[in-house]
């Protein structure tokens, strides 16, 4: 049993739906006070309402430093500081190199990678004041470990997050803040469903546990990294993928 996170102030970016919502729900169930950050206010507010009295919403775009500063300030004012940042917001448009407009490369890197840096920077003044500050990034298996056509920009951004985390973990250790990442495999979210039924079906077949992950599967890994019991873990990653990266071949998968 992990020590309760009741009363802790948690900021989750990209929390109006998908994995971020799952993370926010797991923390809210523990009695944490959660700030739901996303660009579209209506969806963020609906999610906060669904999660209950401990959750509230703030509309901010992770590519915009001034909006993130305002979100961090709101979390501190409403919830008495910031103890945990889950930097989760991300996009994954699928376009092969030959067709990819350079602007799309820039947008994916600006959201997934620079947005991670900006989210950490905005929350840092408050995390430093926490007794046990925690930063948890949502990376991916795609990029750091695997590849998938159409996701050169996405894979670069997700691998880049891990480069960021290793130095951030050293820089922030002096404040007692740990920095770790979850690396999801294929998790059923609104964003993933947008890739189509064929994608979901063939992907589930390639996973040893024979199912896609749930958003709570990621939420519980984040909860562990935020716990008191994980205080001595920093600069590390947890793959949560149903074994997807393990088989060397189709034969290995189906033997
Ligand atoms: P999703 O269902 O599309 O949800 C994305 C969330 O991020 C929404 O709340 C969205 O709300 C928000 N968002 C997007 N751009 C934003 C921005 N510029 N500023 C603030 N919020 C923004 O996506 P998901 O599948 O849950 O993915 C979430 C994270 O998990 C991403 O980092 C993704 O790379 C990672 N991941 C997902 C999978 C998977 O299988 N689903 C696997 C590995 C990693 P608004 O549109 O209102 O801003």
Task: Please give a structural write-up.
The chain has 255 residues and is of the alpha/beta class. The chain has one domain: NAD(P)-binding Rossmann-like Domain (Rossmann fold). Helix content is 45%, strand content 14%. It has nine helices and seven strands. The chain has a seven-stranded parallel beta sheet, with helices on both faces. Helix 1 (18-29) packs across helix 8 and helix 4 (102-127) packs parallel to helix 5 (152-173). The mean pLDDT is 97. The structure holds NADP nicotinamide-adenine-dinucleotide phosphate. NADP nicotinamide-adenine-dinucleotide phosphate is lined by residues 13-20, 38-40, 43, 61-63, 88-92, 111-112, 138, 140, 184, 186-187, 189-192.
Keywords:
seven-stranded parallel sheet, Rossmann fold, alpha/beta, 255 residues, 14% strand, binds NADP nicotinamide-adenine-dinucleotide phosphate
CATH architecture: 3-Layer(aba) Sandwich
Number of separate structural domains: 1
- Classified in CATH, the superfamily is NAD(P)-binding Rossmann-like Domain
Q: From the alpha-carbon coordinates, what is the Rg to the nearest angstrom?
A: 17 Å
General form: globular
Bound molecules: NADP nicotinamide-adenine-dinucleotide phosphate
The biggest sheet, with number of strands, parallel, antiparallel or mixed sense and barrel status, is:
7 strands, parallel
Mean pLDDT: 97
Task: Give the CATH topology.
Answer: Rossmann fold
H/E series? EHEHEHEHEHEHHHEH
Give the C-level CATH assignment.
Alpha Beta
Strand order of the largest sheet: 3-2-1-4-5-6-7
**Number of helices, where a helix is a run of at least 4 consecutive DSSP H or I residues:** 9
Query: Which ranges are low-confidence, i.e. pLDDT below 50, for 5 or more consecutive residues?
Result: none
Distance between the termini: 37 Å
The count of DSSP E runs of length 2 or more, i.e. the number of strands, is 7
